[in-house]
Design a protein that fits this description.
The complex is a heterodimer of chains A (425) and B (149). By secondary structure, chain A is α/β, with parallel strands linked by helices. Chain A has two domains: 10-42 and 312-421, Aspartate Aminotransferase, domain 1 (Alpha-Beta Complex), CATH 3.90.1150; 47-309, Type I PLP-dependent aspartate aminotransferase-like (Major domain) (Aspartate Aminotransferase, domain 2, 3-Layer(aba) Sandwich), CATH 3.40.640.10. Helices cover 37% and strands 16% of the residues of chain A. Chain A contains 14 helices and 17 strands. A seven-stranded mixed sheet of chain A has the order 4-10-9-8-7-5-6, with helices on both faces. Chain A has a four-stranded antiparallel sheet with strand order 13-14-17-16, covered by helices on one side. Chain A has a two-stranded antiparallel ribbon with strand order 1-2. The longest helix of chain A is centred in the first third of the chain and has 20 residues, at 66-85. The two termini of chain A are 43 Å apart. The mean pLDDT of chain A is 96. Chain B has one domain: Sufe protein. Chain: A. Chain B has helices at 2-6, 9-16, 64-77, 82-96, 106-109, 122-146, and strands spanning 29-35, 40-49, 52-61. Chain B has a three-stranded antiparallel sheet. In chain B, a hairpin with a 4-residue loop joins strand 1 (29-35) and strand 2. The radius of gyration of chain B is 15 Å and the shape is globular. The chains are: A alpha/beta (425), B alpha+beta (149). Chains A and B meet through helix 12 of A and helix 1 of B. Chain A: Its cofactor is pyridoxal 5'-phosphate. Chain A: InterPro entries: Aminotrans_V_dom, Aminotrans_V_PyrdxlP_BS, Cys_dSase_SufS, PyrdxlP-dep_Trfase, PyrdxlP-dep_Trfase_major, PyrdxlP-dep_Trfase_small. Chain A: It comes from Actinokineospora terrae.
Chain lengths: 425, 149
C-alpha cells in the first residue's frame, strides 16, 4: 500500500481536536456529524491564531515598525499557502468576511460594472442578459443573483435537478446561451453531496462567453481542488468549514479578471491614490480588501491548510468516501428511509441527507441529539432544492477527517432508535 | 432520559391525533407563519364572536412539537373570552421562554404544561410557538379591522 492510499489514523487525528473529547446530553460521547455546517478546530489552528496575537499582532500593510512587518509577513505567507492549496497564485486570493460575501462581491462588482466605463464592459449586464444558476444551490449562491437580476434588469434562469439529485444537463445548451453573462453553480451540493461535473459546464460557458462562478464551500475542505485546472473564473469557500476560523472566506478570481473588475466595498487599504473628488484603486487582491483585514483569521486558515496538506487531501477524500458509503448502505437497510441525493458513492461527497417516513426531521434530530449525535436538520439553506424534491426539510449527516466507522454505527443506531421512539418501527 | 421529558405522552398524543385541524369557514382573519430555519409553516384562522374566540382552525406542516402545540392551543382558547385566551397566550409564551425555569400553572395551561420540557431546548421554542404566534397575529388583525383604531 502506498502512502497516498494509506488509511487515516483517525484516533491519532482526533487527539488534535480538543472538542471531540467532550460529552453532551448527560455524558454521551460527542459524535459530530455536522461538519458540512462548520468543522471543528485542531489545536494547531487555535495555537497559530493565539501565537499571532501574542507575538506578532499589528495592522498589516502599514506602519514602519517590526511588528507591522511580522504581521504583514504572516498574513501574506498565509495567503500564499492558501493559494498553493487551491492551485492559484497569491494575487488571485481575496480574503472576505465569508463565502457569502465573496459571491456578493462578484455580484455587486458586476452591478457596479453595469454603470462603469468601457474598461469594465465584460462584467456589465442589463436587460436582455441572463444569469444562470441551479436549483441545488445554497441560498448564498442564489439570492445575490436574484438581487443582481433585479438591480440590472437581467433575467435569472436556472438548471434543474433530476429526481436522483443530479444536475439536469439536458437543457444546458438552451439555458446557457449567448445571452448568458454568468453561470454560477455549486461544486458539491451541501445537501445532496452531489459533485457536479465542472468540465462540461465550464466548456459551455466558454462557448457563449459567460463568466463561471463556482461555490466550492463543500469541495475545497474535502478533496483536492485546483481552480486553474478546473478553469473557473471565480470561486468561493469558507475558512470555518475547513478547520479554520470564523469570519473569513476566500474569493478566488483569475488574475486578469480581478485586474479588470471594479471594486465592491471601498475605503482604506484598497486605494492607489485619493483626492477630495476622486480616487484610483490598488491592484488586486488589495482592491477587494477594503478596511483592516481579518489578519489573525487568515493566519489561522494558513495553519489549517498546512494541517490538511500534511494529512493529505486525497487521503481525506478517500476516508470520507468510505464513511459515506457505509452510511448510505446502513440507511438502505433501515425501512422507511429516503435518501435525498445520490444513493451510491459515485461522484458524491460526504453529506448524506434523508427523511424518515412519518417522523419530522426536527424530531429525528432531537432523538439523535439525545444519543450524542450532532446532525443538521431543516432545509440547510437550500429551500428551493427541498421543494423540488418534495420534502419540507431533511436530516443531514456530514463527515470529515475526524469521523470514523464507529460514528457511522452510532448514527445508524440512532436513526433506528428514532423509529422505535416514535412508534413507526 | 431527557428525551421523555421533552416528548411527553400528551405531546405525542396531540401530534398523532391533532384537535381542531383543518381550515374552516367562516373566519375573520387568517395568519400564515413560517419558521425560516426549518421551513415549517402554519396557516391559522380565527373567528371572534362578541368577544369570544368562536373558532380556531389551522393547517400546516411541521414537527411533532409545532403540531401538538397548535392542537393544544385550540383546546385552550376556543369557546373562551378573548381576554382569557390572551392570558393563556401570555402564560404559554412565558413558559416557552423560561429555559425550563418557569413553573407552569396547570389551571391556566392545562395540557400546555407538557411543553415545560421543550423550553429547555432553545432550538425548539420557535416550533412550540409557531401556531401560537399565528393565533396572536390573527387576533391582532381581527381586532384592528373590527375596531375604530
Amino acid at each position: 500500500m502506498t502512502a497516498v492510499t494509506a488509511p487515516l489514523d483517525v484516533d491519532a487525528l482526533r487527539a488534535d481536536f480538543p472538542i471531540l473529547g467532550r460529552t453532551v446530553r448527560d455524558g454521551k460521547p460527542l459524535v459530530y456529524l455536522d461538519s458540512g455546517a462548520t468543522a471543528q478546530h485542531p489545536s494547531q489552528v487555535i495555537e497559530a491564531e493565539r501565537a499571532f496575537l501574542t507575538e506578532h499582532n499589528a495592522a498589516v500593510h502599514r506602519g514602519a515598525h517590526q511588528l507591522a512587518e511580522e504581521a504583514t509577513d504572516a498574513y501574506e505567507s498565509a495567503r500564499a499557502r492558501i493559494a498553493a492549496f487551491i492551485g492559484a497564485t497569491p494575487g488571485e486570493v481575496v480574503f472576505t468576511k465569508n463565502a457569502t460575501e465573496g459571491i456578493n462581491l462578484v455580484a455587486y462588482a458586476m452591478g457596479n460594472a453595469s454603470t462603469a466605463g468601457p474598461e469594465a464592459a465584460r462584467f456589465a449586464l442589463g436587460p436582455g442578459d441572463e444569469i444562470v444558476t441551479t436549483e441545488m444551490e445554497h441560498h448564498a449562491n442564489l439570492v445575490p443573483w436574484q438581487q443582481l437580476a433585479q438591480r440590472t434588469g437581467a433575467t435569472l434562469r436556472w438548471l434543474g435537478v433530476t429526481d436522483d439529485g443530479r444536475l439536469d444537463l439536458s437543457t444546458l445548451d438552451e439555458v446557457v446561451n449567448p445571452r448568458t453573462k454568468v453561470l454560477a453553480f455549486t461544486h458539491q451540493s451541501n445537501v445532496l453531496g452531489t459533485v457536479n461535473p465542472v468540465e462540461p459546464l465550464v466548456a459551455r460557458a466558454r462557448e457563449v462567453g459567460a463568466l463561471v462562478v463556482l461555490d466550492a464551500c463543500q469541495s475545497v475542505p474535502h478533496s483536492v481542488v485546483d481552480f486553474h485546472a478546473l478553469g473557473v473564473d471565480f470561486a468561493v469557500f469558507s475558512a470555518h468549514k475547513m478547520l479554520g476560523p470564523y469570519g473569513l472566506g476566500v474569493l478566488y478570481g483569475r488574475q486578469e479578471l480581478l485586474a479588470a473588475m471594479p471594486p465592491f466595498l471601498t475605503g482604506g487599504s484598497m486605494i492607489e491614490m485619493v483626492e477630495m473628488a476622486r480616487s484610483t484603486f490598488a491592484p488586486p487582491p488589495q482592491r477587494f480588501e477594503a478596511g483592516t483585514p481579518m489578519t489573525s483569521q487568515a493566519v489561522a486558515l494558513g495553519a489549517a491548510v498546512d494541517y490538511l496538506s500534511a494529512v493529505g487531501m486525497d487521503r481525506i477524500a478517500a476516508h470520507e468516501h468510505l464513511l459515506t458509503v457505509a452510511a448510505l448502505d446502513g440507511l438502505a437497510e433501515i425501512p422507511g428511509i429516503r435518501v435525498i441525493g445520490p444513493v451510491d458513492g459515485h461522484a458524491r461527497g460526504g453529506a448524506v441527507s434523508f427523511v424518515v417516513d412519518g417522523i419530522h426531521p426536527h424530531d429525528v434530530g432531537q432523538v439523535l441529539d439525545d444519543q450524542g449525535v450532532a446532525v443538521r436538520v431543516g432545509h440547510h439553506c437550500a429551500w428551493p432544492l427541498h421543494r423540488r424534491l418534495g420534502v419540507p426539510a431533511s436530516v443531514r449527516a456530514s463527515f470529515y477527517l475526524y469521523n470514523d466507522l464507529r460514528d457511522v454505527d452510532t448514527f445508524l443506531a440512532g436513526v433506528r432508535e428514532t423509529r422505535r421512539f416514535f412508534g413507526v418501527a | 432520559m431527557q428525551l421523555q421529558q421533552m416528548y411527553q405522552e400528551i405531546i405525542l398524543d396531540h401530534y398523532k391525533n391533532p384537535h381542531g385541524r383543518g381550515l374552516r369557514d367562516p373566519f375573520d382573519t387568517e395568519s400564515f407563519q413560517v419558521n425560516p430555519t426549518c421551513g415549517d409553516e402554519v396557516t391559522l384562522r380565527v373567528r371572534l364572536d362578541g368577544g369570544v374566540v368562536a373558532d380556531v382552525s389551522y393547517d400546516g406542516q411541521g414537527c411533532s412539537i409545532s403540531q401538538a402545540s397548535t392542537s393544544v392551543l385550540t383546546d385552550l382558547v376556543v369557546g373562551r373570552p378573548l381576554a382569557e385566551a390572551m392570558v393563556k397566550f401570555d402564560a404559554f409564551h412565558e413558559l416557552m421562554h423560561g429555559r425550563g425555569k418557569v413553573e407552569p400553572d396547570e389551571d391556566v395551561l392545562e395540557d400546555g404544561i407538557a411543553f415545560a420540557g421543550v423550553a429547555k431546548y432553545p432550538a425548539r421554542v420557535k416550533c412550540a410557538l409557531l401556531g401560537w404566534m399565528a393565533f396572536k397575529d390573527a387576533v391582532t388583525r381581527a381586532r384592528g379591522e373590527g375596531g375604530p383604531a
